[in-house]
Design goal:
single chain, about 170 residues, mainly alpha, three-stranded mixed sheet, about 5% strand
Length: about 170
């Protein structure tokens, strides 16, 4: 009887000690979800969004629309789910935070100019970590996003074209 009471007490104390960690993780997840939502990550990283029909089954799994920047090329919103092959599943939390705050990917490339990492650089370390935690916890989506495309390369997605001031769509080079 005494042994089972001691075991029960130890289990109860252990469970109570784990609760703050679980609550902290839940709070970080909730904060990350909030920041991803208000930050508009879904806009550029979920297929169908720009056509008015976001594919929620592939949430953050990569866009089907690219942004053309004159002289730079066409950039399609990448898959930012934790899929190992087509997303950011092989990135560490620290690498995600670095990309968000400095624009530098783990492979050394700089994020596309359309990615507003300059604005995200103003996030607190805690908020950037919350975003990273949330991104690591969403459902992995296997979706290889095409591109980036260099100027003049054949593009395989719909494109939003960003034109310099004074230029019209009709006068823009194809």
């Amino acid at each position: 009887m005494f042994r089972s009471s001691v075991r029960f007490l130890l289990l109860a104390v252990s469970a109570l000690m784990l609760q703050p960690t679980a609550r902290a993780a839940d709070k970080q997840f909730t904060r990350g979800e909030y920041l991803v939502t208000i930050g508009g990550c879904n806009d550029c990283h979920t297929p169908g969004y720009f056509f008015g029909k976001p594919d929620t089954s592939r949430f953050l799994g990569g866009s089907d629309v690219g942004f053309e920047i004159p002289g730079e090329g066409v950039f399609v919103g990448r898959n930012i789910t934790p899929d190992e092959q087509t997303g950011i599943g092989s990135w560490t939390k620290e690498q995600i935070v670095t990309a968000i705050q400095t624009g530098l990917r783990p492979d050394g490339r700089v994020l596309a100019p359309i990615m507003p990492w300059h604005a995200f650089a103003q996030l607190t370390d805690e908020d950037a970590a919350a975003i990273a935690s949330f991104l690591q916890s969403v459902k992995p989506v296997s979706n290889q996003v095409p591109g980036p495309f260099k100027p003049g390369e054949k593009v395989t997605t719909f494109v939003f074209r960003i034109l310099p001031p004074g230029q019209t769509a009709a006068g823009a080079p194809n």
